[in-house]
Amino acid sequence: MRYFLRFVLIYLIVYSSNVLAAWDFNMPIGVTNTSQDIYGLHMTIFYICVAIAVVVFGVMFWSIFHHRKSKGAQAAQFHGNVLVEIIWTIIPLVILVAMAIPATNTLIDMYDSTESDIDIQITGYQWKWHYKYIGEDISFFSILTTPQEEIDNKVRKNPNYLLEVDNALVLPINKKIRFLFTSNDVIHAWWVPDLAIKKDAIPGFINESWTRINKVGTYRGQCAELCGMHHGFMPVVVQAVTESEYEAWLQNQKTAKLAETASAQKQWSMDELMTTGAVVYEKNCAACHQANGLGIPPVFPALNGSAIVQGDAAEHIDIVVNGRQGTAMAAWDTQLSAVEIAAVITYERNSWDNKTGDIVTPADIQAVIDNK
Amino acid sequence: MYEQTKTAHHGPAKGLMRWILTTNHKDIGTMYLVFSLMMFFIGGTMAFVIRAELFQPGLQLVRPEFFNQMTTMHGLIMVFGAVMPAFVGLANWQVPLMIGAPDMALPRLNNWSFWILPFAFLMLLSTLFMDGGAPNFGWTFYAPLSTTYAPPSVTFFIFAIHMMGISSIMGAINIIVTIFNMRTSGMDLMQMPMFVWTWLITAFLLIAVMPVLAAVVTMMLMDIHFGTSFFNAAGGGDPVLFQHVFWFFAHPEVYIMVLPAFGVVSQIIPAFSRKPLFGYASMVYATASIAILSFVVWAHHMFTVGLPLGGELFFMYSTMLIAIPTGVKVFNWISTMFKGSMTFETPMLFAIAFIVLFTIGGLSGLMLAIAPADFQYQDTYFVVAHFHYVLVPGSVFGIFAAVYYWLPKWCGNMYKESMGKLHFWLSIIGVNLTFFPMHFVGLAGMPRRIPDYALQFADFNMVTSIGAFLFGATQLLFVYNVIHTVRSGKKAPQKPWEGAEGLEWTVPSPAPYHTFTTPPAASEK
Q: Could you report the per-residue pLDDT of B102-146, keeping only the tens digit for each?
């Protein structure tokens, strides 16, 4: 027992010194005025709680040491005191009022999302985020890039393990940015601790929040509301840049978009479709239908050997483009380009045990979307 | 003084049928307690799976979909299977003994409310073996994750919840009727022991909110099978409505799980301080205030769903107010200890730990009430730490304290004090090692309900897991101690605790099968 206690003690001392050196045992102060206000509130209420605990537990442990029978203490027989009882009702009330005033001010400020410079719509999907820059014709998905091998402990985990995405949300500093949150399926919550924003993304509803970032940097967060199987695997990454860098980034995005439109027009070969399809499948489909195409029946059906995948291409296209009502299968025409849908369907029809030899072209997909 | 000879010829029936057909409050109380202990270990095993997976970053043991089933089932089983039935068991044993009644007022109802439970939980547990797995949407089962996106087993979950609700409501009715009608002559409401008072108030809470739970799962059932759209925005419904209705049930539910523990502690602290409870009347009023306030604070669980500013402020203020009656209770307990003549047997140790650790949970609750700060705390491990502090060293320690305190009365034998103390000290180390570091990872940004986490959370998670294994293993000591006591403990005197007061200590140990067939005088208390 004594050895165990010594071990625990040493362990705790060694670890606490490590931990104190790092930043990660308290709330981050963050990089916005709001996050700093919240940090201030958090520390104030924390110190109040510590003070209350010290007084209350102090009296209690003093009694425990002095008023014990083994020390010959005789029990007093009092069982009430109106004055004392009034005092210990009033004092907490005063503390609470004192605490409520700054909290109310911060909250009012957090709710004032008027006069924004930039508006961004954030949509939660199972299990990724979609960002749309309102008025800029720019929108994209942001998907976890941590390789499955790292999650399965086959290779060493990189420092940003589970907190890295393909496309970060790029934002300029010193601008008032308004966020509009909604969801495409279940409820998610968009959270970046350094910005002190956490807001639920709810299907059918739009929530608002705002921020003004003071410092250039990369800020990482995660989905905070249980949203199904891969809830732990949909991080948020915000990249705060200077205004000129932001303008340059916007230009880049627009150029890239033109190039993408052009690529839809070209003739796609089987190999090209299969290569693109494999990437799209890994990012968007593997979470449910699994990399081996076996799915997790009955909720997520297998694609390998599926009658639909091996059967008529039209039905397969219909399900991918329009989704399936009442199930987790989304309508992918809102999430993927015609090229990507064509590629992934081609990939599914020619992978694992599925050997249909079919090529589904972007034009086939575009036709279905246009006829909707 | 009670005379045993009067009813000695009328003992319990023999064999299995005694337990199936019994209408005796002591038998039913025992069954509730044994059932709760079994559920505590099943739910604990699930916690073990969770903590083993979270021991290190990466996925080692289970897949994310099974991890979600574990968190969901752990919560449901601990809340509905372990904590609530344990308190109903304590009420069954103790309420009649403490108010001088021969039995519960509605004995057949009592039998039925217990016997529903094993079937409800059998059904709930069977979902683990169904296609698509058990419920995986968290014990709060937010729609539409629990409706449109749920596994097929959700229907069994809904039916199981209905059965638990029926059981709880019948149990609550029974307790209220018993307390109002069967107190011995001369015992006014304001002379009842605190445990009886807290249970009376808890029973009213149960009757008020269990139907709300039934309503919300019924709406889910309609959405899933009958094409309604209560919680489906695409059909004109509102997913946030689910949360309002759910938390209107679940916030009072939090107090349902802790008020009886307040009662237990209010019995034990005076007994081992050899001094009357300080502020009896204010204790009663504080309990009632907490119960009433619990109906107007529900949306503090929903600060980030996008409530309007006015709603946010209302729920922040009302939640902060709860600190006042809760504070009164803590101050009263400490004033009871002050200038007492204390001894520290196992029940007292657990009661003191309850006060300290429950207060820590209460203080982190005060922090969570500050709405702007809650935007950072919401749905993180800080919340997990908070509610485990009020539920494990709160409710569960309250139950342990009660069992050690009354076990000599129930079985007539004294538990092993040294083993009780060992159970206490290992539990207290385990509990704090498990739940205290959760505050840190939560503040640092770790969301709850994730099967894998970023690397900066690794150290604290490992400490937490070690603590959890220690706490879990320690509970085997408790089981051993209880079994040993019942089978072969030393004979206990009629009143094993020098400072204990109350009618339950006026009957022999073990309490005979039928007690108080003629009402005792209340003054004997």
A: 999 999 999 999 999 999 999 999 999 998 899 999 999 999 999
Three-state DSSP class for residue B297:
coil
What mean pLDDT comes out for the span A126-135? 94
Q: Which residues contact B293 (CB under 8 A, 6 or more apart)?
A: B318, B321, B322, B325
A163 neighbourhood in chain B, CB within 8 Å = 454
Phi-psi region of A162 (alpha: psi -120 to 50; beta: other; left: phi over 0): left
| B450 vs A contacts (CB less than 8 Å) | 222, 231-232
A144 in Cβ contact with A165 (< 8 Å): yes
| ipTM of this complex prediction, to 2 decimal places | 0.91
Which of B142, B342, B443 comes nearest A69 by C-beta?
B342
List of residues 6+ apart from B331 with CB closer than 8 A = A56, A85, A88
pLDDT number for residue A10: 55
Closest residue in chain A to residue B499, using alpha carbons only: A75
CATH superfamily of A266-370: Cytochrome c-like domain (1.10.760.10)
Task: Report which residue type is found at A283.
Answer: K
Could you tell me how many CB contacts below 8 A there are between chain A and chain B? Answer: 300
Please report, rounded to a whole number, the percentage of residues in chain B having pLDDT higher than 70: 97
Q: Helix B346-369 vs helix B397-411: angle between axes, to the nearest 10 degrees?
A: 150
Which tokens sit at B101?
């009644």
Is the distance from CB of B333 to CB of B266 less than 8 angstroms? yes
pLDDT at B265: 97
Residue A343 · residue A276 · CB < 8 Å? yes
Q: How confident is the model over B315-319, as a mean pLDDT?
A: 96
Q: Dihedral, CA atoms, B331, B336, B337, B342, nearest 10 degrees?
A: -160
CA B14, B16, B18, B21 torsion-angle sign: negative
Helix-helix angle B417-444:B346-369, to 10 degrees: 10
Report the number of secondary-structure helices (H) and strands (E) in chain A.
Answer: 11, 10
A contacts of B317 (beta carbons < 8 Å)? 100
Mention every residue, 6+ apart, whose C-beta is less than 8 A from residue B334.
Answer: A56, A59, A60, A63, B355
Q: Band the pLDDT of A62: cuts 50, 70, 90.
A: very high
- The predicted pLDDT at position A132 comes to 95
Mean local confidence (pLDDT), A28-48: 95
What does each C-alpha distance from A51 to A26, A44, A57, B364, B435 come to in angstroms?
A: 18, 11, 10, 13, 21
Ordered by start, the domain boundaries in chain A are 24-110, 118-259, 266-370
Residue A258 confidence (pLDDT)? 84
pLDDT digits (tens, 9 = 90+) for B425-447: 999 999 999 999 999 999 999 99
Distance spanning both ends of chain A, measured CA to CA: 72
Q: Domains along chain B?
A: 26-524 (1.20.210.10)
Q: Inter-chain contact A205–B380, Cβ cutoff 8 Å?
A: no
Whole-model pTM: value is 0.89
Give, as one character, the DSSP assignment of residue A13: H
Whether residue A232 and residue B375 make contact (CB cut-off 8 A), yes or no, is no
Please tell me the distance from the alpha carbon of residue B464 to that of residue B472, in angstroms, as a whole number: 12
Q: pLDDT at residue A331 above 90? A: no
Tokens of A70: 């083994």
Classify A118-259 by CATH class. Answer: mainly beta
Share above pLDDT 70 across residues of chain A, in percent, rounded to a whole number: 94
* Average pLDDT estimate for B62-67: 94
Distance CA B148, CA A204 (A): 14
Q: CA nearest B79: which of B242, B235, B257?
A: B257
End-to-end CA distance of chain B: 12
CA–CA separation, B126 and A11 (whole Å): 41
Hey, what CATH topology would domain A24-110 get? Helix Hairpins (1.10.287)
Neighbours of B52 (CB within 10 A): 15
Task: Single out the residue of B109, B341, B93 nearest to residue B195, CA to CA.
Answer: B93
